[in-house]
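Subject: Interface between my chains keeps coming out wrong

I've been trying for a while to get a sensible model of this assembly. When I model each chain on its own everything looks fine, but I need the whole thing in one frame so I can look at the contacts. Pasting all components below, labels as-is. Any help appreciated, I'm running out of ideas.
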Amino acid sequence: MEYLKQRIQNEGKIVSDNVLNLDSILNHQVDPKLIQQLGVEFAARFHDQEITKVLTIESSGISVAYATALALEVPLVFARRKKTLMSDNIYCERVPSFTKGIVTDIVVSSEFIQPIDRILIIDDIIANGDALKGLINIIHRSGAQLTGAGIVIEKAFQSGAKEIRKKDIRVESLVQINSLENGIIVLA
Amino acid sequence: MEYLKQRIQNEGKIVSDNVLNLDSILNHQVDPKLIQQLGVEFAARFHDQEITKVLTIESSGISVAYATALALEVPLVFARRKKTLMSDNIYCERVPSFTKGIVTDIVVSSEFIQPIDRILIIDDIIANGDALKGLINIIHRSGAQLTGAGIVIEKAFQSGAKEIRKKDIRVESLVQINSLENGIIVLA
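Reply #2:
Try treating it as a single job with all components included. I did that and got this:
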């Protein structure tokens, strides 16, 4: 993941001590070859987990989750952020967004997560982990098995990933950011 | 595209004479191998256009736009539906959503579309074409060249694609839906 680290150092823009703008890599523009490599890496890390579906949440996680699902040869499901023309049978969790300062409902149709499924969650960034906790709650409610979560970038100075690992849930992050203080991106 | 047509016939759920729910194929769950084929098809149709970037709008278009960008070996930019932690230099267009009955602002950072770019727009569905018209306006304002648009499913009984083609813009759709009346999906 040295190349990803270089891209983060070169193109990440520090917005505050807590927020790193990664628009040119993950959140607004993506490099498909880089994303493909990340998907292959996640697939390799979870290849023995007999995964049946990859789950992410719109929007920034979709491309890397797609690349992972393609490598694992399983369907991709992306949770929606509100109710729009979906079936009545939905799982809905209300989650705050650290970076956006708003609360959203994340929604998955129960049709697409069945008790027989073994789910791998993929997302781009974890900070406080609210989106991930919402997805985990949805999987638990569905009766499906959660095999773990693959996250491109973990903001290790925030508590989300640590809290989730404490619940014996496997969280694999490809790059850890230890600090954004004093205008410097410190990677692990 | 016979396989895509079969999937639409088998899994599409008619919501009304105007709206087809394609959650299991495009809008909530995707089959990565199918999406990959669609991306390769779009790349083949536009291969001689010297495209430098693929542009889509979050969220349902991202996976097929990613697959197209990967096949063309160019970056993917996805327009966001509101302003959130982006640079000050943005192009913003207000567009209505036919299916959702709401108005949203679609936003692209000017950093990611330059006058030197040759842009291919990719999206999942065209109905009245409001999202596509918004993206086209953004490209025109940026000074970049628009090479055309690749759309997975065209609702041919609505006017969006026709109106855009009248402006001499190339719109390639992989499947055309001629009617959803009387509970029957009629494909071209």
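Reply #3:
Confirming on my end. The domain at 2-187 of chain B is CATH 3.40.50.2020 (Rossmann fold).
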